[in-house]
Amino acid sequence: MSTTPPRSRRRATLVAAAVAVVCAAGIVTVALTTGTPTAAPSRTPMAAASSPAATPAAPSTPTPAPAPAPASPAPTTSGPTDAVDAPASTTVASVTGATVPVSSAPGGAVTSTLANPQASGAPLVFRVVDQRDGWVQVQLAKRPNGSTGWVPTSAVRLSTTAYAIVVTEATNTLDLYEHGKVLHRYTVATGTGGTPTPTGRFALTELLAPTNGGYGPYAYGTTAFSDVLNSFGGGPGQIGLHGTEDASSIGRAASHGCIRMRNADITTLAETLPLGTPFQVR
pLDDT per residue over 110-164, tens digit each? Predict the structure, then answer.
């Protein structure tokens, strides 16, 4: 089992691709780059972020977009904030083959088979939440939030990361942790009262580089999905972590659920965080 890879290895895990990402305010075309470009796969829809739109990439009947949510001050919480989930070390599972079987229990019947790479062209990487002899329990990017499944260890390569990120909605901040300690705090934008960012313990699933304006230089996909938007623009309402061209929204509850960062800040994370990194919203 290896420790957190150096930046050059993390960046090398990205693949060259062009995909359509359905965001909380529309559709954006993105591209992934590596040191050794490969042919781009066909375009496929995937949900992620929360900003202005472009054009759809797949023939579908999208859910009509709600009116843009106005920026508003940080929401007040109606109950206690969850405890911080920032482990000093997290096991990450990278799928080694073209597919991986997923079961509901160790050694159980296969309930689904996932493709590697993903539809976006990104490698299939999981956050591991439990291990048993010959099996790992991983977080899945599917509804309901918190879904998990078991995959055989023979189908993955295990490594560890010392990083974690924690978003606190009450303060519109994102804390970057390393070895269980805060390394840096960033001011971010979160979801509005009508389209809040879902709370819970999630993981980063893919790293995208948008080729059109509005989303900054990078956007992470996550295992989180909106509690309000079950579909949007042909996508499933997946929550993203991305940059923005609207710097005035930072520090406010201004999105349809995604986390917006200043472009310099999301670039720092993109050069630091491997896929599978724990991502908590509280």
Answer: 999 999 999 989 999 999 999 999 999 999 999 999 999 999 999 999 999 999 9
Please give the positions annotated as active site. Answer: 242, 258
**Strand, helix or coil for residue 10:** helix
DSSP characters for 186-197? EE-BEE-SSSPP
Give the C-alpha distances (Å, rounded to integers) separating 171 from 65, 91, 240, 277.
Answer: 28, 29, 19, 22
Structure tokens at 62: 């999208």
Task: Count Cα neighbours of 2 within 13 Å in the Cβ-side half-sphere.
Answer: 11
CB 145 within 8 A of CB 223: yes
Residue 211: alpha-carbon gap to chain centroid: 18
Enclosing H/E stretch for 164: strand 163-168
